[in-house]
Write a structure and sequence with these properties.
Elements (H helix, E strand, L loop, with lengths): L3 E6 L9 H9 L1 E8 L1 H4 L6 H19 L6 E4 L2 H12 L1 E7 L5 H17 L2 E5 L14 H9 L40 H15 L3 H4 L2
Parallel strand pairs: 1-2, 1-4, 2-3, 4-5
């Protein structure tokens, strides 16, 4: 028997260089989870075009997981409630995620998740994924810690074992969440689309960037 571990995807919808997924894989059989939170999408800074981008990213992530014999588990609801159902149904003892740099709503939600984890004896492993350094009393030492983080080698995610038989909700569309602001020219979601956009900038669109930017 191995432990069942939730890898909670948030703003890190990729398998490549994903430290949270690598940590989860080292702890046991992984439930790759994304939570669609209606209350988040009801905030004033949410939009349909953002959700459309997210939806494409989830579909792309699920396709990559299928190459490893797994599917993305999507659940809708309030995060502590979703996590508690999975803990109760599948004996989860570990939750792994990246730290989220978001708005006040996500910060408050994460505090509630931390309270749930403490109350249920679930170890929540939060890993940084950017140069943001939390819980510093002052700026001294920030730059060195930031540079040390961004210079780390890519994380190799291997030895993946996935929990089986986990039911998933369908990925809703923006209209389901009462979000309707189509943007035909927006950037497409998903790692593959992101790599194409980066490649286009590095080799075509960014050719004169340094001199033309001003």
């Amino acid at each position: 028997m191995t432990d069942t571990v939730i890898c909670w995807f948030k703003r890190d919808l990729r398998l490549h260089d994903n430290a949270a997924l690598a940590r989860a894989a080292a702890l046991g059989s992984v439930i790759p989870l994304y939570i669609v939170e209606p209350a988040l999408w009801a905030q004033s800074d949410a939009s349909g075009r953002q959700f459309d981008f997210l939806r494409e990213s989830l579909i792309d992530l699920d396709a990559d997981l299928q190459k490893h014999g797994a599917r993305l588990v999507v659940r809708q609801g309030d995060a502590p409630d979703v996590l508690e159902r999975l803990r109760r149904d599948h004996g989860v003892r570990h939750l792994v995620s990246h730290e989220e740099t978001g708005n006040g709503w996500t910060y408050s939600r994460d505090r509630r998740v931390a309270e749930w984890a403490r109350g249920q004896g679930v170890a929540w492993h939060e890993l940084p994924q950017s140069g943001v350094v939390r819980r510093l009393a002052g700026r001294n030492g920030w730059a060195a810690r930031r540079e040390a983080f961004v210079r780390q080698p890519h994380v190799c995610v291997d030895g993946l074992r996935f929990a089986s038989g986990i039911e998933s909700d369908p990925v809703p569309d923006a209209q389901y969440l009462a979000l309707d602001d189509p943007c035909p020219g927006r950037q497409a979601g998903g790692r593959k689309a992101g790599l194409r956009t980066l490649d286009g900038f590095l080799h075509v669109r960014g050719k004169d960037y340094r001199s033309a930017m001003s």
